Amino acid sequence: MKPYSLAIIFLVLCAQNLYAMDLAEMQALALNNRQVVRQYMTILEQSEKDIVRARGGYYPSVDIGYTANFLDQATLLEDRENSKATGRVSWNLFDGFRDKYTLLSAEKQKEVEQFRLEGVQQDIQLNVALAYLAVFERQANRRVAEAAFQTLGKVYRDGESRYKVGLVDKNELLRFRVDYDNADISLKVANADLQKSVNALSRQVGREIQLTELDFADFNNLPPQIDREDYIRKMLEKRSEINALKAVIGATQASAEAAASGYYPRVDVVGSYSRFDNDIATSGLVREDELRGQLVVSMNLFQGFTTEATVARAKLETRSAQYQLEELQNDLTTDLQNLNIDFQVSLDNVAVAKRSIEQAEENLRITQLKYDEGLQRDSDLLDAITSLSRAKFNYVSVLRTAFLNNFQLIRMVDGF
Questions:
Q1: Domain extents in the chain
Q2: For 265, left (φ over 0), alpha (ψ -120 to 50), or beta?
Q3: How many CA atoms lie within 13 A of 40 on its CB side?
Q4: Is the domain defined by 20-59+95-264+304-412 classed in CATH 1.20.1600.10?
Q5: pTM check: above 0.70
Q6: Candidates 1.10.1660, 1.10.12, 1.10.10, 2.20.200; correct CATH number of 61-94+266-298?
Q7: pLDDT tens digits for 237-281?
Q8: Tens-place pLDDT, residues 148-163
Q9: DSSP state, 225?
């Protein structure tokens, strides 16, 4: 292979390794790949067809028909075989505003489905963010477990050397070995958990994700603090579930008005053309044509209380949706306030966890020096190693909690 070909391959491989997906790219992939998004988009398309159906009341209705009659014998008024061809155009002029409110209800229902789609999209983006955060946490935990494994391995090998020259007894060496084996087990579990978290992220994104594609730059800086009141205002204005319920209320109100059209008269104009023929093939000797125009006014006086019940039921649906909306707003406001409290605490805890790592590292350094001089017991050294690992795990945990609360706060205001 020529040298320049090798150089091109090397550059391509480097470019692949340097490329890393961020959270926004993975969320975009998920919105494009996930079938649940297409499912809700299909439901939205169905609601658009319902609007077309609702608009049909504003258009005339055109019908044609043909009837062939066969009698056992002719009569004075009707031939033995005869036929009738008809054409009819009817147009409703007034139906108690039924068409208006039926269309309005369909349009509101479309808004409901639009907000539900937006809610699903927000949930998917949140799930991608949480799955991404889980990979970040598991990788950090794997690094902590790996560092503990390497440290305990070094201590165990050093203990073996000391044991050979009689500086430590068999019991101390066995303690080193037990902790070393435990670190080995913990590292294997951490590796498995990391791979499972990558698989979970792949499921959320909708395609296979490799760990090498992630650089976790989204977690380099802590998320900023928020203005609680501003977030509450945004949530009440933008949250898709709240807006969907508001649209439901509008749809049920329009349905009640449409149902109330049963109290009003109905006015239609009808134009029809009829052709009578004494032959079923419309080619007989006797033909009669009729062109008729009609104005039809009708009004229902009693229908078994169904109109009243329909109107009352629609109003009850409106009232129920209003109660549900109020409960949802109160629940979400409380959840946001509690999330903000947790978020503030987690930000404070990050600083504390950092300080704990520094102190644990210094403690291990001092303990190691004293142990090397024979001034500390093996249990003190193992305790120092364990304390450092615990401090690092705590830091990963509080960092994860900070980003978790931040992602959930973003979802509260439909901010993805």
A1: 20-59+95-264+304-412, 61-94+266-298
A2: beta
A3: 19
A4: yes
A5: yes
A6: 2.20.200
A7: 999 999 999 999 999 988 888 888 888 888 888 989 888 887 777
A8: 888 888 888 888 887 7
A9: P
